[in-house]
Design goal:
This protein has one domain. It has three helices and three strands. A three-stranded antiparallel beta sheet has the order 1-2-3.
């Protein structure tokens, strides 16, 4: 079972060897809210629900800025299990903000290219399967996090 902590990076997705500074000025709470709002807007625009949302990182209550700032956002859209993972920046907030921009780019594709164009792109995200848990089973989210956005 994949859990929010510690970070579960998608198999077959190489890590960025060196992070770069970002221009983002958003804190962790704001970046998390931005990702949630972007997913909600994407679901509304596409007419397809986002379910099974799980944000995986090394953030804990006692360590908001972990040494590894990578973030992986898992969710299901249009029956496609998706993962958007970013480790380009040193902080989880910056990587979440980058994920929000990726989702917003998908909204632009939806607006100009239509649903089939976005489905094709999301199949690329689907090629990054979620890791299996210690028990070898596919990840599952808790009932509270699997609510539709």
């Amino acid at each position: 079972m994949t859990e929010a902590y510690p970070l579960h990076w998608p198999h077959g997705f190489p890590r960025t060897p060196r992070t770069t500074r970002s221009q983002f000025r958003t804190g962790l709470d704001g970046a998390m809210r931005n990702v949630t709002n972007a997913l909600r807007s994407f679901a509304k625009d596409s007419g397809k629900d986002i379910v099974n949302l799980l944000v995986s990182s090394n953030v804990t209550l006692m360590m908001m800025e972990p040494k590894d700032g990578a973030v992986a956002v898992y969710f299901t859209w249009d029956d496609i299990d998706c993962c958007i993972a970013v480790d380009r920046y040193p902080t989880p907030a910056d990587n979440l903000q980058a994920i929000m921009h990726i989702i917003e780019a998908e909204r632009v594709k939806l607006r100009h290219g239509g649903l089939n164009t976005v489905r094709a792109g999301f199949r690329g995200f689907a090629a990054l399967p979620p890791p299996k848990g210690k028990d070898g089973q596919r990840y599952q989210t808790s009932p509270s996090s699997s609510a539709m956005l």
